[in-house]
Design brief:
Blueprint lengths: L15 E4 L28 H9 L2 H4 L3 H21 L3 H7 L20 H19 L8 H18 L17 H10 L6 H12 L1 H18 L5 H14 L7 H11 L6 H29 L19 H13 L5 H25 L3 H4 L10 H11 L12 E5 L11 E4 L9 E5 L8 H10 L4 H10 L12 H15 L7 H26 L5 H10 L4 H13 L3 H23 L5 H11 L4 H26 L1
Parallel strand pairs: 2-4
Antiparallel strand pairs: 1-3, 3-4
């Protein structure tokens, strides 16, 4: 979500990273062009303009005084984008920076963004400006780190241009990741570093009525154009909003605010009481009425849905889905290629599961067992942090808190999620657990690994500690982040202390289930499966009608979401297989993980390109060691 809330342009890295039964991270706002082509520019084969510049760049150019000037200009360019984008949306700003004044940001808007066509158009004009300015740099004079940033930014921007024309295909009110649930979750974690933060927070609450009126106007525009959501999604959102406002006198945004104010040592007691009173006033006069407006207006649009199925049934919906898959996965593979990759793994998993069960027909009874004491999640996370040291680099020493999802949000919230820290305060890490979905099984254990160590918390703080360009912290790469989270889950099964066969059956069950969801997603949203066709596929693999209905509705509400988790994971496994084959006995899992973490979130073709250099370096390092030994 950014100032141009309806575009993908420099969308702030989603501050909540979800993991649930088999679902994922919140949506990133997107725009598309009408061409619908999904070919992505491979950063390894730079465009002709860049190639020409490289050919014209000689060794003497690299050593000239122009080099430092070009590098400085590039840093200035990316830093200017970083600060200007953040200053346009208060939530992005506060979630990213604890102290924006240290980054030269003193003036900023108290705004949550807009859904208007005018804002959307302005976004693409700005995007074109950025692309033109990028083209002016001499790529070959940049540092290797700047070249990586350049490649990521350029690919990101060119991908974003393809979204133009698809504004009304977006769904900003889905039950899991809609604005009506996303924004309150962020506000519950809104840290007060000084008194201005408290004032800003209260001003944000005042914007709720106008923001949600704008959102409902967008929904009405969708309805008129034939892009409105199905009735079952409306019912869920209305129910979610009703739960949110059910107890206004004891609302969690009141309790959490009071707790934060009580801890604010920069305020005296009189000021604390005044701010507490102001917050209650805004909850009752701004926030509650805004949700009542949704409850009143959204049902009026029921019955206007022209498509009860997936995206494939909308005009240009299949093309939009292709772009969405690229956005969510970060993979340069086409949807048919992704489908084949998943099907191949699905079949292999099934055969291996069959083989294990033939050897031990009680194996499924042992799957949920967890030798780890899960009663203290903080202790579990610290134990995981210690255990991963053998295969992962030493991470940043940082703190974290574990909290529980407010009861009024449990029904439509994931089992757990991690909230990113500000880049200038990496100790502010928060993991939330949904008590209503705790099972006291091994899945709870691997979920903590997904959110914590070696998952999101570890990956994020390690990457930030490498001091990458600030602009990279604005980009959202769900395929990398959720793929890494899934990779962390799969790795952590082996840390639970179960017998080898149980560990393996759990790994296979996870990937097999992911494959079912992803193949169903592609079937519904890309191939245009009907409800009956979906039920036939799911019942054919043994799922009951109730579960099948839930999956069907979820994949219509959140198209491509599961692909971020599973395709991202498969891309990491493909990278690992390539590295293992190239390096043989010289392959080091710890070195491989270090490479991935240092490279950081990016499109997978860019990571693949950098890995070729890393492999060469590993080979050369081995040869050097051997020559010294001789």
């Amino acid at each position: 979500m950014n100032k141009k809330i309806t575009t993908r342009l420099l969308a702030i890295l989603l501050t909540i990273i979800f993991i649930f039964s088999m679902a994922g991270c919140g949506k990133t706002a997107i725009s598309n062009d009408s061409s619908g082509e999904t070919t992505t520019e491979n950063s390894t084969s730079k465009n002709k303009e860049t190639e020409t510049k490289e050919q014209e760049t000689t060794t003497s150019d690299k050593n000239s005084s122009d080099t430092k000037e070009e590098q400085k200009k590039f840093n200035d360019f990316t830093n200017e984008i970083f600060t200007s984008e953040l200053a346009l949306n208060i939530l992005n700003l506060h979630c990213t920076l604890a102290h924006p004044e240290n980054f030269g940001i003193k003036d900023y808007e108290i705004s949550l963004g807009s859904f208007s066509a005018e804002e959307d158009s302005e976004s693409y004009e700005l995007l074109d400006k950025y692309i033109d300015e990028l083209a002016d740099f001499n790529y070959n004079l940049l540092t290797s780190e700047q070249q990586l940033t350049y490649d990521i930014f350029k690919t990101y921007a060119n991908d974003s241009k393809k979204y133009k024309g698809y504004r009304l295909h977006n769904d900003y009110m889905s039950p899991l990741n809609g604005m009506q649930s996303y924004i309150p979750t962020i506000l519950a974690e809104y840290v007060f570093y000084d008194e201005q933060d408290v004032k800003d927070y209260l001003e944000i609450l005042k914007t709720f009525p106008s923001f949600f009126e704008d959102l409902i106007s967008f929904e009405k525009e969708q309805s008129e154009a034939g892009f409105f959501m199905p009735d079952f999604e409306v019912d869920k959102i209305v129910d979610q909003c009703q739960q949110f406002i059910a107890n206004p006198d004891n609302h969690y945004l009141i309790d959490s605010f009071n707790s934060r104010i009580d801890s604010a040592d920069f305020l005296d007691n009189n000021a604390k009481e005044l701010y507490k009173s102001s917050n209650i006033t805004q909850i009752k006069e701004s926030v509650i009425p805004a949700y009542e407006y949704i409850i009143s207006e959204l049902p009026k649009l029921k019955g206007t849905c022209k498509n009860e199925g997936g995206l494939a049934n909308f005009k240009n919906g299949k093309e939009f889905y292709e772009l969405l898959v690229r956005d969510y996965t970060g993979s340069d593979k086409s949807v048919p290629e992704i489908k084949k990759m998943i099907e191949d793994k699905y079949k292999a998993d099934f055969n291996e599961i069959l083989g294990i069960t033939l050897k031990d027909n009680t194996i499924f009874d042992k799957m949920s067992e967890c030798p780890v004491d899960l009663s203290d999640p903080t202790k579990v996370l610290n134990d995981l942090k210690s255990k991963i040291a053998v295969d992962f680099p030493t991470g940043l020493e940082t703190t974290f808190t574990v909290s529980y999802v407010p009861e009024s949000m449990e029904k439509y919230t994931s089992p757990a999620y991690y909230i990113l820290p500000p880049i200038d305060n990496l100790n502010n890490n928060s993991i939330y657990i949904n008590k209503s979905q705790v099972s006291e099984s091994i899945e709870d254990f691997v979920t903590l690994a997904h959110e914590g160590f070696p998952g999101h918390l570890f990956q994020t703080t390690y990457f930030y500690s490498q001091n990458p360009s600030n602009i990279r912290k604005l980009f959202s790469f769900s395929g990398y982040s959720e793929g890494w989270g899934t990779y962390a889950e799969m790795y952590s099964y082996s840390l639970a202390g179960t017998e080898d066969a149980v560990t393996r059956i759990n790994e296979l069950n996870k990937t097999y289930t992911f494959a079912i969801y992803c193949l169903t997603d592609i079937g519904i949203n890309y191939e245009g499966w009907t409800y009956d066709e979906t039920m036939k596929f799911l019942s054919g693999i043994g799922l009951g009608k109730e579960d099948s209905n839930t999956i069907y509705e979820t994949l219509i509400e959140e198209p491509a979401l599961y692909l971020a988790y599973y395709v991202g994971y498969l891309e990491f496994m493909e990278l690992r297989a390539t590295a293992e084959e190239a390096l043989g006995d010289n392959f080091s899992l710890k070195s491989f993980h270090t490479f991935l973490l240092k490279t950081g979130p990016a499109q997978f073709e860019i990571i693949r390109d950098r890995m070729e250099t890393w492999i060469d370096d590993q080979k050369n390092s081995k040869e050097l060691r051997n020559s010294r030994a001789d």
